[in-house]
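Regression report. Comparing outputs from two consecutive submissions.

Submission 1:
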Amino acid sequence: MFCCLRAVRRLCLEKVLVQCTLQSRTLSGADAINALRPFYFAVHPDFFGQHPKEREVNENSLKRLNGYLENLQKPGFRSFKPTQLTFYVREREPNSSNVQESFSASGFRAVSFTLHTRDLLSTVLDILNSCSLSTEHIQSLNVNSQPHKEAKSTLNRPIKWDKTYYSFTGFKDPEEELEQAQRVETTLISWLDCNEASAVKKLKKSLPLRKELERLKFELSHQLQLSDIRWQRSWGIAHRCSQLHSLGRLVQQRPEVLKNVKGRTVVFTDRSGMSAAGHIMLGTMDVHHHWTKIFERLPNYYKLQKRLLFLEDRISQLLGGIQVIYIEELQPLLTLEEYYETLDNFYNKLCDSRLPFHPRSLRGLQMILESDRYAPSLHEFGHFTIPTVCDPATLQWFIFAKAQEARENLKRKEEMMITEKELIDTSTEKFSLDRLYKEPSVSSAQMIDCCKRLLEESLPYLQGMHLCISHFYSVLQDGDLCIPWNWKN
């Protein structure tokens, strides 16, 4: 009798221990989000407003990371593929790490790492460690920071055989298979083969909304006589329709405040105002009251824009006729007021220095101003990137030294733009694509290289699809296929 009692007691204790062990290491979806707060704070796209390229990379990587985390929480989901991610992390003290890190002078660093974990806790720890972020706060979530060592010894512990076992029996070593999967790069054909069905399903589902978006955009553009309607970020189709519906309601309620928008471009972005390029910015988080104020202030914005153009001309005259331009795709999103202040400070600095540029000696050349750089540079497209804090003597020497190269780059840019357009048209026609486009962070040279190699392939998967040339593989929520420009075959 006492033997039976001891056996029952031992079984009960084992059961309690197993439950306690599992309880100490199980991480819920909400816990994972809380644990990743330092990471989200370091990479959130809203903190990269001055750096559109890096912002876009983080947006795409977050989408793929969220998909990975969602799959981890699906019951019975076992098909995990190693996922490589790149994030720009707001700069901390650089620590030695086995991940690829590169520090920039802009206050952030690029971090690349591969996820291949099969539970939330290990994934969270991998992310934080890869970005050199603390994991101490995870202990307060009542989880075990080493999930694989405990509990598995009592429940469902996989047998780890010696390597000779696999050699003798001919069975596949699961650890070796995982290592091989991590070493093998994803190829374009294999990725399309795995993701075509998912993309087609999402695309078909989004078609009614796409038609609705085109209708709303056409009607509002025609009604307000707008030049264009754009979006700064890659929001989904449903989100864009919602923004246009909101603008449409404002048109119905307050038509008189929109009388000054004729010929202008409206851009839905993170804040309201007028951009440095002269576009009307409507903040997607703002209410109609804020939008109404912006439309009412348009006459004042137009006056400031005239003063800004005059200031650009004055700078051009002081610098030998070089044209001062603002390139939306390459520069931070600035308001008209911010850009005017930047130009004004630079102009006053030039007036004080009295640089001896010969009048019209630099006509035909272009330059942009950057407030977050310290050394001048020449872009591959031929324009000079000039820091607002640049020493006048250094500026003069650099422009004179690079003037001929700049002219050659400008000429090459025109040829490159023509070639790029021809290749996009040819690729769209060959693969019967509904749309072929690229992310702003992809250069023309990269797009040309990508299209040339695509044209050498036979890709029936792409018929009727929306193809985006990016830096990563992903399927967007509305069915657009994203492939890296430097894809492998």
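Submission 2:
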Amino acid sequence: MVSQTGSTRKETRPVSAFLQLFTWEEIRIHNGRGQGQEQWLVIDRKVYDVGKFSKRHPGGSRVISHYVGQDATDAFIAFHNDKSLVKRYLKSLLIGELAPDQPSSESNKDKALLEDFRELRCSVQKMGLLRPNCTFFFLILLHFLVLDVASWLMVWYFGISFVPFVVGVVFFTIAQIQMAFFQHDLGHCSVFRKPKWNRLLQIVVMNVLKGFPASWWNHLHNQHHAKPNCFRKDPDLNMHPLLFSLGKTLSVELGKKKKKFMPYNYQHKYFILLAPIAFLTFLQLYTFYFTIKRKKWLELFLIVAFNIRVCLMYIPLMGFNNFMIYYWLSRYLEFTWFIWVSQMNHIPMHIDYDTNKDWVSTQLHATCNVNQSLFNDWFTGHLNFQIEHHLFPTMPRHNYCKVAPLVKALCDKHGIEYKSKTLLTAFSDILHSLKESGEHWLEAYLHG
């Protein structure tokens, strides 16, 4: 018998093997916004109350809250490699299961697509594509460490004349962006099989070698993967509407409300300069706010130590003024590189509010690929395989090219477009998309 009221449910919560049965309608209304603000979600037909646990969730409180009132089965599988460890946490959160007459997922989700994707995931596991290659990641680690040291040796040995200064900046920029890609791998637990080793090395790379908090990155990036291009759930869209107007739906909505924080009809022109400057400024300031507010004292100490170390390494060689130019020019180039690589797969794609689509549709509608080549793989940290990365976020990047034909076959079978383009086309599509969004905003602003 399916429970009908929240008050009865609280008094008769299941014990032992006697689990209460729920309908999807009941799950839907317990989305954290109703009376009592209970947060329920479904994993493999089991119903869990994650309201109190969300604040203790290792992946962050917000990422788990993005799925309350919904089926989270495929997201749960995608994010967690060590299922036995996670299920220990789940046991205490279990409050019931779906009634026998209820489907395993909501009616708006593509059941056939999900079934085929789950079969594909089983095949991926059997093929060993979720297992990391230690040699590959060691070479990645070695190459950016060599570049980082070379940037200092260049200035130390050749001085600060124009050529060694520029070469040093280039080496430092490349080392920092490749560190960013590597810590991204670590944040997804795709370098080591044990999550704790990934987390430990991520702190070393992100905090000690880059000077930014690893916990901040994980907090935001997990949300991005949970609901990519879903406004108010994907933090990568937080630049809307303060700096940019993104996507047709959001741009028209903004225009009709007669809101204008920036001249959005020119955003495709000021994106090139403003986006990296805004992100760099925000991150430098927010780093300290985030670590202090969340009492991440170890990370704060390591970040301060990074800044002291870099100053002590370079200022004696080039003086304070030259160091400021050297350091901030490198950071600007790094963030420019990062912005273009990270946004080429998302800004040109569909942007909207969360409509609770199935895992596969959600990821495919928000991502696209850039054609594979040795240069593209290196230049983007293998984020040219954004589709595969989003479908299998814990997969080591060296296996994306192996699973790509299988994903493409899945898309062909279900009539879903598998987008892949050249690197230059991907970059130009960012500007074209921003131009179109700006035009939609202007039309709605003037005539909506």
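Expected: both submissions complete independently.
Actual: both completed, but the second showed a warning that disappeared on reload.
Relevant detail on submission 2: The beta strands are 20-22, 40-43, 46-49, 94-98, 230-231, 352-353, 369-370, 420-421.
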